[in-house]
Amino acid sequence: MFADNHYYGHDRALQRYAGLDRPLPIPGRLLHGWTPEAGFAPAQLASRFPFLVWNRSNLDGCRERGARSVEAIGSPFLYHLQGKTLPPPTAAKRLLYVPFHSAEQARVQGATPLRERLDFLRAQGFTSITICAYWHDFAQPEVRAAIEAEGCPVVSNGHRDTTPDFLDRIVTNLTDHDLVATDRLSTLSIYALAAGRPAFVFGKTPGISPGPDPDGSRWATLQRDRFPELLWENFDGTCHTDTALRELGAEFLLSPEELRRRFDWDMASLPRLAARCAAIKATKFATGRYHELRHRLDGAPIPAWL
Description:
Strand content: 5-15%
CATH class of the largest domain: Alpha Beta
Radius of gyration: 21 Å
Largest sheet: 5 strands, parallel
Shape: globular
């Protein structure tokens, strides 16, 4: 029903955790990445279908923006980690550096040149540095060659849409290293902490455009005010697992039985699940038609019947 429910293999992680022997739909729109804010725009939250978020900040933010139906269930990554024993970091200080990256519809603004960032990290004693590249960058041989020319191996977690084992790849890339660095606090920073890897944010915070923070100043302030323990100037090698558990919504995690019951993921409840999904699809269609009509009106007053 929602394409972003499939991103990063999140739906599969929940289905495996719940013990399903076949895929069933998630009756709601699942937040697909970490954010310390609402996670959905006000226009999205105006829709009547259910929203599923990760943490307390997401939950409060959505409610403040007028969400009619929102529930926190924790991050799919935490469900994915359940029952797994991850190897501890070694003393080798193998660093995984995850640069903030452009995306299909937005570009990074004001990033420090890669060589300067690597020079900084090496000056701090990190001599073994691997770069985790965005799938689009990784797919370009000339980009990988430029990174490797700086003396760094390159890895990737894969494409979010076509990599059902995305979370497995993240765990492998994290546990193949001892620490994680980013130049802007991100989902992977929080995942690293949950996987027992100390993580820090360093350097100038890049911005992203189009968007409300093209120079990165808003995000830099948020990092400084809400996550000072993760900034390089305060880094002492501690793995702040408590921060990860809070941000990934550990307090909201459901047992396999609770998850199946909440989503109507059992044989007896399949008719109810089908009815929930049908209602969501109808709402999505009506919402889509509404926005289509608004677009066609091209700025004209919206009729009251809409």
